[in-house]
Amino acid sequence: MTSPLVIAIDGPAAAGKGTIAKRLAAHYGLAYLDTGLLYRAIGRLAHERGLDLGDGAAVGAVARELDPASLDDAALRGREAGELASRVAVHRQVRDALTSFQRAFAVMPGGAVLDGRDIGTVICPDAQVKIFVTASPEVRARRRTDELLAKGRAVDYGTILAEVRERDARDAGRAAAPLKAAPDARLLDTSEMDIEAAFRAACGIVDEAPYRDED
User: Fold this and answer.
1) CATH number for the domain running over 6-198
2) pTM, entire model
3) What is the rounded CA–CA span in Å between residue 32 and residue 27?
4) pLDDT tens, 26-46?
5) How far apart are the C-alpha atoms of 103 and 100, rounded to whole Å?
């Protein structure tokens, strides 16, 4: 019997992991979950309620009542939601509340692609394919700046770079599921790649992976 293919994509903000993961899901006919949206939704809801984002118990309660339907809100893709997500993701109560949801998604019969920051290390440590997508802070800040400028936002590259570095430090330094590559993950550095080259490289990693049929 063939085990459903699970692809775990991890990496820092603006490295391209979301775009790569979504395209891999479409290419291989797998379900796709952007796990970052879960944290963005929780961060925004907690902020709207006026909660202290440093209060793990309070924010964890928000996580336990999260409605998956709220993930369709386009506002969750914004820069502000990303910052809120990083602030609430440091809490173990939040991560514990979301672990079951993500693992249930990963074992869907048809297989799945999940992207986030702890997929290969915590959520799906047995995933057949693990890719850690990264790029230099300077490249990621430039991509984010260009994206926001294209949307008509007045932003400063230096400010964005500082935010990228601050978020990297927060994500890598948190006690609960810090951002890091799984020991068996393949590294994909997109610093010198456009999205087409990055996608082709990711497909190569998937196609070369030694996942097997099981009886």
Assistant:
1) 3.40.50.300
2) 0.86
3) 11
4) 999 999 999 989 999 999 999
5) 5
